[in-house]
Specification:
The complex is a heterodimer.
Chain A (H helix, E strand, L loop, with lengths): L2 E5 L3 H13 L3 E5 L2 H10 L4 E5 L7 H11 L6 E6 L4 H9 L4 E4 L4 H16 L6
Parallel strand pairs in A: 1-2, 1-3, 3-4, 4-5
Helix pairs in contact in A: 2-3
Chain B lengths: L1 H9 L1 H68 L2 H21 L6 H30 L3 H91 L14 H70 L3 H16 L3 E6 L6 E4 L3 H11 L3 H8 L3 E6 L2 H4 L7 E10 L5 E10 L5 H40 L2 E7 L4 E4 L1 H7 L11 H9 L5 H13 L6 E6 L6 E11 L2 E11 L1 H37 L4 H33 L7 E4 H14 L4 E7 L5 E4 L1 H17 L5 E10 L2 E7 L23 H4 L7 H11 L3 E7 L3 E9 L9
Parallel strand pairs in B: 12-14
Antiparallel strand pairs in B: 1-2, 1-5, 3-4, 4-5, 6-7, 6-10, 8-9, 9-10, 11-13, 14-15, 15-17, 16-17
Classes of the chains: A alpha/beta, B alpha+beta.
The structure holds magnesium ion.
Keywords (chain B): ATP-binding, Cell membrane, Coiled coil, Kinase, Membrane, Nucleotide-binding, Phosphoprotein, Transferase, Transmembrane, Transmembrane helix, Two-component regulatory system
EC number (chain B): 2.7.13.3
Protein name (chain B): histidine kinase
Amino acid sequence: MKQILLVEDEEVLRMLAADLLADEGYKVDEAADGAEALKRLRERDYDLVLLDYMLPFYSGVEVLEHFRRECPEKRPKVIMLSAKTQPADRERALAAGADLFIEKPYRPFEFVKKVNEVLHETDGSPLSP
Amino acid sequence: MRRMAVHFRRSVASRFVWLMAGFTVLFFLGSALLVMYQQSLTRSFEAVQQALEQKEIRTHQLDRAFTQAFFDVRGYFAFGRPSFKESVFQQQETAKQVLREMEPLAVHPEDERFLRDAHDFFIRYFEQLVPKAIEAFERGDRREVALIAENGGTAAVQSFQKRLAAYHDTLIDQMKQEYIDFKRKQQYGQAAFIAFIALMLFLLQRLMRLAARQIGRPLQQFAAAAEQFAKQGATVEWPTFDEQEDEIGKLSKAFMMMMESIREKEEHLLAQNEELLAQQEELEAQQAELEQALAMAERREQELARRNDLIKGMAQSLDKQEVLHSVIRNLCAIMKAERGIIVVADEERAHASFGLSAMSVHRFLQQLYNGLEHRLLETKQAFTIRRELPGFERGYHDEPLYSYDLFVPVLSPSDDVEAVIVLSRFGAAFTDDEAVEAEQLGKHISISLQKLALYEEAEKDRRLTEDIFNHLPEGIQLVDLHGTNKLMNGRMKEWFGAAADGWHEAPYAEWKQRLCALATDEQALSVFLDQAVFGPADELSVMTYELKENRIVMEVYAAPLYRGGAKFGTIFVHRDVTKQVEVDRMKSELVSTVSHELRTPLAGILGLAELLLNKPLAPERQHKYLTAIYQEAERLTALINDFLDVQRMEAGRQTYHWEPVDLVPVVEKVVETEKLGTDIHAFSVSIETKRTVIRGDRERLRQLFTNLVHNAVKYSPDGGTVAIRLYEHSGRLCVDVRDEGLGIPAEALPHIFEKFYRVDNSDRRRIGGTGLGLTIVKEIVKAHGGEVDVVSEEKKGSTFTVRFPMASITQEIN
Ligand SMILES: [Mg+2]
């Protein structure tokens, strides 16, 4: 069973995403800010991290950069989520090592589809063409 | 002999030489004779003396011989010793010898008489008496001997001895006599010598007189005559010595000739002199003419020099005041005026004076347009007036003094009076010529004044252009085709400070290096400048760079400059776009923030709604989702309302309904409402003043306090007291809203009234909010002429204080 860490400060969005992923049969851990996220990342190896860009204290990119430096051996897939759609933000996220950038608001089923795709790339067997 | 005579006649000198020679010879001859006489005298005296001495000696010898013989005879007779007898004979021989020797000496008859007597006695004695006596003695006949002696022998002897003594005395006398004679003769000789010397001196004196007569007198006469000649000139009577052939004569002739020659020369000179005098007169006449011409030329030159000074003074400066001063000073010198003033006939009435006190100038200016100048303005001609000096100008003079004032118009080429000059002179009036000259000078001054006016205008324009150029908000720099800096404005210098010093004519490499060193991205700026200066000339290029020192963001654009179709340089315009960039950044950030704030609830609503629509869900789950959708929609509405409020308020488009509002019921109502939403908070409202009415908009005030009280509740999630206090301070009505909640970190305090600012704190982050509440508070307070601030300590709580200006007393409620 794939382990996913969901980092999202907005309660409603966290609930929505968590429910969607749970329905897909993933095991989801939740974190509301960067500090909590890093704590969880250190504790477990996740297959995927869903990282909100706008977080209190540290932005999602900062959390990611920090995590990459701290645990270079852990290579989870990372999807960056953001309501900020400036091209610079997207570039920065990808440069920090995100595999995918999903804009908010997203459509739930497309979101699930993208998560599945990213997770199955790891196995070399994409779920669907 | 004749030749000698001729020679003597011809030479005074030889004459006197010969006379002196003769005199000398005579002197020596006479002296020699006298000496010789003296010597012969001495010699003859010595000879006589010697002869007498010889006689005396012989006499003495004879006496001794006879005396010895007597004694010897008697001795022989007494003792009978033959030796006596021999001695007698010996004495006989001696006497005989002496007698013989005396013979040649006998020169006097006395001598001969004595000699005869001596000879007789000798014979009688030695040849008669002695032999008889001796014979008698030898025969022993003593009687006979005695007889002989008695018969005359002894008597004879005695008589002869007497005779001898007498002769001896005679000789002594003779010697004495001879000596006396000699002495006498010697004295005669000496007297003769003295007489001879006297004679010689006499002769010498005669000789001197002769010399004096023959040389001295003519010389004296010559001297007198020469003196007279020197004094009187040609008319002198010359002493006539010219018959003489000697030096005097020659001298006389030479003098005569000299005088003659002098006379001739003098006459010649006189003639020449007369000629010269004539010439001199002619020359003097010419000189007088020349002097007159020279004086005129000098006057002209001085006049020109003064005019030159005037013109130079005008040309040397472009400062109006300086020029006017120079003009009036020089004009007074040219016109020989003691005082003067020049006033420009325009609004400013710029003026300069010479020899006038400030008070006089002031008085003059006041009176200037009251009378006299009208005449100038009408006639446009110089005129003079005479006026009596008032007492204070007269100084120590008692009698009336007059001042002549010359009024001169300075006329422009178009005959307008540009300035008025007044020159004052004491005592002497200005002539018409002087007035004309002053008018002419006025024309020069007019040209100068016009030049000044043109310059001032041009200078004003130039300054205006320069001011504009230097104070443009843009830094402007002009470079030529080689990039050499040609021009830059003050703004550039202001921005770039010391780095922009000495840029004038600085080569490209130098200023570029210095400019680029200021920028954070040196390389990019350098490339841009290279491209602008040397690149293709057809486009305007722009770039932005940041200054290292103060993070100022500059924008520079470069444009090629064309003259006659050819590029001749490049203009760089630097602009401080820091603010603009900041505004842009803030705008884009706001857009980004707003979009994020709006998208976030929308994302929830959309996602949940799609899920509800497309997926069969358990009813609890459906309810959960619908509740969330409702909350998010509410949140979105509040957000949009707040955002619109802020936009309206910031843009000044919010309409306020002003009325007197008592804050107490407003605050109380807000508290009542907020109480309903919580049961862990206590509320207290304390009213510490009676004057609680302000002029305000009731609805907005309610919004204001709602935001503050709601925040107080929201940010004290663990409950506590929310205390509201109304009081008066410094003439203002103040409202404190205090909580015991989370507090605000110090670094966040300056920002909390900014739009969408939210303190990043996990505790707070779970607390919802638009991030616009405090911005709205600030805007409403501002609209009411009040202010808001906050004091806070983390974990202890915050106190927001709002201060309003008090409403007037009539609106106070009781
Ligand atoms: Mg977020």
